Amino acid sequence: xxxxxxxxxxxxxIHKRDENLREEPPAKKPRIENKNSAEITKVSKEDVPSGSVxxxxxxxxxxxxxxxxxxxxxxxxxxxxxxxxxFIYGNYSKYYGYRNMDxxxxxxxxxxxxxxxxxxxxxxxxxxxxxTGILTIEIARRFKVKxxxxxxxxxxxxxxAFKALNRRKxxxxxxxESKRMEIFPFNINFVHGNYVLKDDVLLExxxxxxxxxxxxxxxxxxxxxxxxxxxxxxxRRMFLQLKPQGVLILEAQCFNNYAKRKRIxxxxxxxxxxxxxxxxxxxxxxxxxxxxxxxxELMGVPDxxxxxxxxxxxIFYK
Length: 318
Description:
This protein is of the alpha/beta class. It has helices at 3-23, 37-41, 59-63, 68-78, 95-100, 109-114, 117-120, 134-143, 155-170, 178-181, 219-241, 266-274, 282-286; strands spanning 124-128, 147-152, 188-192, 210-216, 242-251, 295-300, 313-317.
């Protein structure tokens, strides 16, 4: 074969191949399906040398160039602080702890009651605002009451009262006769509820149930939460629930004691500003025809180390 002809033939074939290559589109690379592809291509800040590439981020993040610690400090400042618990009904969970100020329970009001121990013997008693029931239980133990019911508006406090009562019961022998005879501590019960009625018309169905009603350091909280109308209704209901010759034992807070708690809620503040029936008027009202008590006497003044707890205790006789 002539070499010049062979060379011409080869060049013609190469030219055709090049033309075909230019006309054919480049083959697509097969797509690799990988669920973790985002994780594979993700590069952390630590893996990239500073200044080597420009990091892409959202405009919001590009504007926020503060140090991490500074951002956390400002976020924590924005978060609301833990709100202090408000005991709007005087339902302090550790009331007896700060009132009695000692590890061994001793309420100085019991010293006042001691002079009238015969008043409690074999009587049915209602203790309104009993809190955790410690004083209620101690009255039942000391004065041999026939029965006593502790009432409180706070369900949690009533639960604590039942726990304290059950601890007392567990200390007794299994075959103890106290339960059968319904004497201490089986003559004690606790009830959760609000003593203030929703409507005065409900007073019409009240019947005498108790021989003694205790209202100790409670009038301020009824007054602030339910106003003049609420405290007056409470006094009338107490009278109606007492049996003939029954007694109300009342330890009321003075009006000066109200101001410190007047801003707990908007309702309390409104009631405080609207008060026209003051604690110094309680005696006159209780002895009036609108309620009906016939007489009263000073039971005593607790000898407490704090003047705020040296509140006179009165007995009102039906």
